[in-house]
Amino acid sequence: MATHISTRPASARQGSPVRPSSEAAAPLIITADEELLDRALASAAAAGVEPLVLHDVLAARRHWSEASVVLVGVDCARSLAGQALPARSRVLLLGADHDQEELCRWSMTLAAAVVVLPTQLTWLAAAMAEGVSAGATGVAIGVLGGSGGVGASTTAAGMAWRAAQDGRRVLLVDADPYGGGIDLLVGAEDVPGWRWPRLATATGHLGDLSQQLPRVDQLEVLAMSREVVEVPSPEALSAVIRTCRQSHDLVVIDLSRSSEALLYEGLRAVDVTAVLVADDVRSVAAGQRLIAEWGGAMSGPGVVVRSGLGGGVPAEVVASTLELDLFGVLGHDRHMRAGVLQGEPPGRAAGRRWSRQCDTALTTALAGVRHDS
Ligand SMILES: Nc1ncnc2c1ncn2[C@@H]1O[C@H](COP(=O)(O)OP(=O)(O)OP(=O)(O)O)[C@@H](O)[C@H]1O
Ligand SMILES: [Mg+2]
Q1: Which CATH number fits domain 139-367: 3.60.15.10, 3.40.50.300, 3.30.70.360, 3.30.450.40?
Q2: pLDDT (tens digit, 9 = 90+) per residue, 65-119?
Q3: Ligand 1 center from residue 294 Cα (angstroms)
Q4: 3-class SS of residue 231
């Protein structure tokens, strides 16, 4: 099939990618499927960008690397895979609902996030708009308890929920096989949607999972299942974190010391790790032991001190003893336990003071993260 350029859409141009008002390169759409193309162009119009459209993959090589984002119709996936093009980020694989099997199959090979149309038209428009701006990707933060029961899951959920209420796209990921399911902690246990077992063996890119995941308020949650005993593989955990960093502003992972393999992969996949340590001598000693063993695997580690439990070790002393940056201090919130037991997410159950402290700790932790495109 000869490579040719769509003549239909006024906004889609031939030749080198059209430069929109910014200096950034345009999105590239590769599909011969008229319906998919119509939908992709509708998203492009909504995003205010002018894409370059190719009906097959032969001409893709020339534009492959420079395009802000590449949208590949599932009809072209096989031939694109045969081209052995250089690896690049921001490749999206487009298909309809009935293409799910093919989408899953080629998503891995092409390292492409799946976009199901028309369901995800709005998401696609945002992705295209982002692709021609700074091209920032999301940030992943891991939260890990320096000792048991210190409040790590609560803090992870609190940070995630608060950020989601600010209008950010946030995913809370449960990486604790023995935590009882983080959906329970945020009051989403009855919300239908995928839990880990559905993704447990996944590798590569999984697409934008948003349509499938349970949601509470604006927060999306990927939880362990209480029904199925299937722990995600370390590869699946890192695949989900990598993929969701492309579709979300923030991915918060509730890490656990109970599975070393998951912890190691989780620590490697995040941009920053917040270690929660209570302000008493024993907890600090436990934190020291943890850092001695795992600190080498952590990116940008810092400590969040859990105060108010009577320990009384000043937060600065906790941080300097652990030789970590101090991300923040979280006090004891007397409403937390009862609120959470009634099914409220920690950010809603807690009072304003804890919420503010949670925001500060998150902001400080993220401040040191370098944004790569
Ligand atoms: N800042 C806080 N104020 C009051 N209660 C809290 C606070 N943080 C956590 N809690 C309560 O402490 C208990 C343990 O919290 P959580 O499950 O988050 O700890 P964890 O460190 O994740 O535990 P594990 O080691 O089992 O994973 C829960 O009952 C929770 O509601
Ligand atoms: Mg926990």
Answers
A1: 3.40.50.300
A2: 889 889 999 999 999 999 888 878 788 889 998 887 788 778 767 777 778 888 8
A3: 22
A4: coil
